[in-house]
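Same chain as my last thread, 154 residues:
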Amino acid sequence: MIGYEDIVKSKKRIGKYISETPLDYSIGLSNENTQVFLKLESQQKQKAFKVRGALSKLSSLTDEEKSKGVVAVSSGNHGAGVSYAAYLLGIQNAKVFVPETAPKAKVDRIRYYGADVVQIGKNYDEAHAIAMEQIKMNDMTYIDSCSDEQLIAG
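reply #2:
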């Protein structure tokens, strides 16, 4: 389970790479009992919060893990975040598996920062299964999009 200290450690690792984004008071979501503020992570360079998690996870890897490479499975923002984080951290071997149905604009965003894009499988599940085989064969690190604690701490 992630604690406050994990979040602080992550912030120290990724702080120089990300923008500080504003909190915006939401009139529509707030009421007389509750004030709701929105964290505008759409103002990050990647236009999504996913870059925080990708940077947190990739920056926590050992040099050996970085040299072996990283793999993500995505059809959008997570893949772009991993590609961008790998670029910033100098990780040369980054692969993002995407289903054949992934939108071209999203695939182009992933590719832009240098990750190898592997378009394979009819859907996410097929792309994921093939990626897991590649990870085992090549001893690479899987960058999970939602359940990795280092990623979540970001």
